[in-house]
Amino acid sequence: MSRRTLAIILFVSLAVNVFLIGAVIGGLVVGQRVHHQRPAMMARGGQPLWAAANELPPEQRRAYRRLLRGEAGEVRAGMLAVQAARAEAWRGLAAEPFDAAAAKRKLDMARVQETQVRAGVESRIIDFAATLSPAERATLAAGLAESRPAAGQGGQMHDRQPRREP
């Protein structure tokens, strides 16, 4: 091997190594920033139902959040079942022969399941609200009315105005 070829290979190897080391370090820096900014992002908007109790007195806030934590496993399981049902319905689009009515039925069933999961949580929130004073109930109501899921948050429905075409 000539000296020139060896020098080129060494230079290319050095450049690749510097690139890889920079990529790893850059990934670590970005990862750390995201990790440290997440609590601040959650405090600003956070989880809508969780943030709804921010203005309640501390004892009621803790009780409300205990209620939500208690619901978390059941809600997660229910929503996973909904996602699985939807995925099955969408996979049905590729089936031969295609049965549009069956796909619509499966999506309707998934929608009903999702509504039932949400209704269960909302019902328990209403039961909790019944234990509050009128002023605390008004505070919770204001928090719930203002809390809306952020875009892209778990496929949750939004109560935004429909987008108008230009």
Protein architecture, described:
The chain is mainly alpha-helical. The protein has five helices and no strands. It has helices at 3-44, 48-51, 58-91, 100-129, 134-146. It is flat and about 85 Å long. The protein starts with a helix and ends in a 20-residue tail after the last helix.
Brief rundown of the structure:
The protein is an all-alpha fold. The protein is about 75% helix and about 0% strand.
Supply the key terms.
single chain; 166 residues; mainly alpha; 5 helices; 0% strand; disordered C terminus
Overall mean pLDDT stands at 79
SSE order, as H and E? HHHHH
Largest sheet: none
The total beta strand count reads 0
Fraction in beta strands: under 5%
> What structural category characterises the helix and strand content?
mainly alpha
Radius of gyration: 26 Å
Global geometry: flat
Distance between the termini: 66 Å
> Which percent range fits the helix content?
over 70%
Unreliable residue runs = 40-46, 150-166
Tally of individual helices: 5
What's the layout of helices and strands?
Blueprint: H1 3-44, H2 48-51, H3 58-91, H4 100-129, H5 134-146
Helix pairs in contact: 3-4
